[in-house]
Amino acid sequence: MKKLRRSARIADMTQYLLEKPHLLIPLTYFSERYGSAKSSISEDLQIIKEVFELEQLGELKTLPGAAGGVKYMPKVSMEQAKKWVEEIRVGLEDSSRILPGGYLYMSDYLHQPQIVNQLGKIFCSAYHGLDVDYVMTVETKGIPLAYATAQYLNVPIIIVRRDNRVTEGSVVSINYVSGSSKRIQTMSLSRRALPANAKVLIMDDFMKAGGTIRGMMDLLLEFQAEVVGTCVFVEAEHKEERLVDQVRSLIRIKHIDSTNKQITMETGSLFDNLE
User: Fold this and answer.
1) List of long-range contacts for 154-157, beta carbons under 8 Å, 24+ apart
2) Distance (Å, rounded) from C-alpha 151 to C-alpha 81?
3) In terms of Cα–Cα distance, which of 144, 147, 137 is closest to 187?
4) Phi-psi region for residue 235, left (φ > 0), alpha (ψ -120 to 50) or beta?
């Protein structure tokens, strides 16, 4: 790359870091990329680090030594995350979102890239220290959220299918009990999708009894994988016993009154310990 002025170098370096989160980049790479001394690169990175912290874009971590370098870790404070989620909660409490049967329409929020990216950054902040290898979800509504989270964690996404497809090759299939309807359903995953002993973060858009998440957890047992976390966008309070524990949510539905068109929500379990 041709020699750049310092301002242009910092701008290009910032863009490079933002596009490659959680990747350790040797200082030598930047030094050779811009034809600059490592001391100059270190000074540039310090400026970027200060801006990232000031604008709450995340943390720029420097690792010393011959094998060291710099790593960008997307991060948002729980206070800022709660503000984002509160704005969404207010929108979801609109009575016009109540569907027949007491269901709630919320797909439009998961179809807006800016909102989904915010949610992905929140989950990334909550799980970035667990060395996640893969993000898993089941088709279809949870896919945008899983993609956004995987992008910030810089890991692949795994999509569990509800039916077998010839393009998936050999698959592992299991039967599971849908928590709300109590019906027996099937989910499957390609044998090529996941290596043994992988650390997996499970995500879904909505949870009531937890049957789908329980199914994904059971499916991962067939791959000798470790579940490092389970999280959902919205959870509904469930009077009966749940099939899974310790699921972290962003929003919790307290009550839906279809007759009087009223919805009561609160921030989810991810914020329960927030002082």
Assistant:
1) 154/20, 154/21, 154/22, 154/23, 155/22
2) 18
3) 137
4) beta
d(CA 152, CA 58): 11
| 242 DSSP assignment | P
What pTM was estimated for this model as a whole?
A: 0.91
Please state, as a whole number, how many other Cβ atoms lie within 10 Å of the Cβ of residue 3: 9
CB 249 within 8 A of CB 262: no
Q: Could you report how far apart the first and last alpha carbons of the chain are, in Å? A: 48
- Residue boundaries of the structural domains of the chain: 6-74, 78-271
Q: How confident is the prediction along the chain (275 residues), in pLDDT tens digits per residue?
A: 667 899 999 999 999 999 999 999 999 999 999 999 999 999 999 999 999 999 989 999 988 877 779 999 999 999 999 999 999 999 999 999 999 877 899 999 999 999 999 999 999 999 988 899 999 999 989 999 999 999 999 999 999 998 877 778 899 999 998 766 678 999 999 999 999 999 999 999 999 989 999 999 999 999 999 999 999 999 998 777 788 988 999 999 999 988 888 999 999 999 987 54
Question: With contact defined as beta carbons under 8 Å apart, do 274 and 82 qualify?
Answer: yes
Domain with residues 6-74, CATH architecture: Orthogonal Bundle (1.10)
Q: Which listed CATH number (3.10.290.10, 3.40.50.1100, 3.40.50.2020, 2.60.120.20) goes with 78-271?
A: 3.40.50.2020
Distance of alpha carbon 268 from alpha carbon 154, whole angstroms: 25
